[in-house]
Amino acid sequence: MVGFFILFFLFIGGAVDYLYFDAFTHTGPAFPIATILSLGMATLGTLTAYYGGSGIILGSIGAEKPDMQIPEHRELRNIVTEMALASGSVMPQVYVIYDPAPNALATGTNEKNAAICVTTGLLTLLDREETQGVVAHEMSHIRNEDIVLMTLVSILVGGIAILADWGQRGFYSTRSGRRMGRKSPLLFVPLLLLIALSPLFARILAMAVSRQREYLADATAAQYTRNPGGLARALEKIRDAGFPFQKASRGTAHLFFANPLRRRLDDREDGLANLLTTHPPINRRIMLLYQMAGIPQSLVQGSKVQTFKGANGPQ
Amino acid sequence: MIFVIWAIIFVLGIWLISTYNTLTALRLRVQNAWRQIDVQLKRRYDLIPNLVESVKGYMQHEQDTLQKVIDARSRAMASTGVKESAEAQGALTQSLGKVFALMENYPELKASKNDLDLQEELTTTENQIAFARQYYNDLVTQYNTKQQVFPSNMLAGFFKFQPSEFFSVPEAETAVPKVNLTLTR
Fold first, then answer.
1. Total structural domains within chain A
2. Element (H or E) spanning A195, and its range?
3. Most buried of A119, A207, A273, B38, CB within 10 angstroms?
């Protein structure tokens, strides 16, 4: 999937270079300038965020150190300790966000600066087993190095956005317009279209990668807790709570446990929803977890998987 | 021709080094995971006197059961080696489980705040032991498998890698689910 992404990036870069700088021909420069330049710019931008690190993200969503006087916070710290043991990793830092929306996220680029963040809404809504499932899911993101992967993906998305921007500007300037004339229109018309649409394709690809990692984290969480039912029940409760998380943005949405920018689209399971969301449909995640637990879907009480209409809240 | 021979030797060398390193790394991780279990077990030893102290007042009629916990604790502390300590720990977990079950009969015990804190401590300690053990056993499975499958078994035999022992759970304990004493919200 990520390999496909890199190929897509190189193709778009090549197309821009071919159309505007005459690369790959006798008269043009010897190497694809636009591709290298845009990759460099995107890398610079993303790496600043990467090394500024989890601090910036944690600050932007209002994460605070847990207060050990509060029993629920102590319980959270204990659960994180348990999951660190189950995954055989170093204990990550623990943060809470004072917000009624039940959600959680993991940040950090390696085991040493990893952090797990949970909202107080999640702690009040879920019981111990369910919280354990959520923390295990976040722990899996750290262990599977999803944060590093998503950083790479956002470099590529950024690079494609820059390329498309250049492509569109160049088209209106007459000088490049003349150059265009020497090339076969059969070749450059589809290429131009592709460049214009490439930011959209890039987003779709990025979201596909994000969804894949969510399924993987669910499965790894089940392996850590040996209790897929806990995570499944947590997802059910979060689905029915239906609180949007106000402090999340498009840039941080993919880090969260359940999609914080919740729209109707996220609960649908058709083709469009499959293309445009950072998280897989919550009902499908629940169903897969119950399958892991060996419980047939029809026996699960209060299950709304068969009737999608009711998926937005209690009926 | 001579080039082909060198290529084969080169590939074999790479395989040899990487397999040996994988096996050694696994052995170290198994040892480390074992120490992790040890840390958690010590935590439990420290908590048990607290538990007994705080429930003694309420559970006048269960002195026998409490005494059994204390005995099991000292036996477990004295045990050495994977197999022996696994058995002693199993007995301790079982006797603790009995106390937890009996605590259900004392509503005033469940209501007091100190004991709620203590219960969370005990819950997490039991879970931490269970998870540390689970991780250890997963690693042992990985390590032993690597030693037995072809072709890494030839290397493991030559360098005398020994299979590790599982921290196995006695029959009676497997029936008991992980402890959860916290009140459902």
1. 1
2. helix A185-225
3. A119
